Amino acid sequence: MNGNYMQKTVSVNMITYRHESYIEQAIKGILMQQTDFDYELIIADDCSPDRTEEIVNDLIKTHSQGSKIKYFRHKKNIGMQANGIFAFNQCSGKYVALCEGDDYWTDPLKLQKQVDFLEANLDYSICYHKVQVLRNGVLEEDDITSEVSETTTIKDLAKGNYIHTCSVVFRNRLFRKLPKYFHKAPVGDYFLHMLNAKYG
Question: Per residue in 57-83, pLDDT tens?
Answer without folding.
Answer: 999 999 999 999 999 999 999 998 899
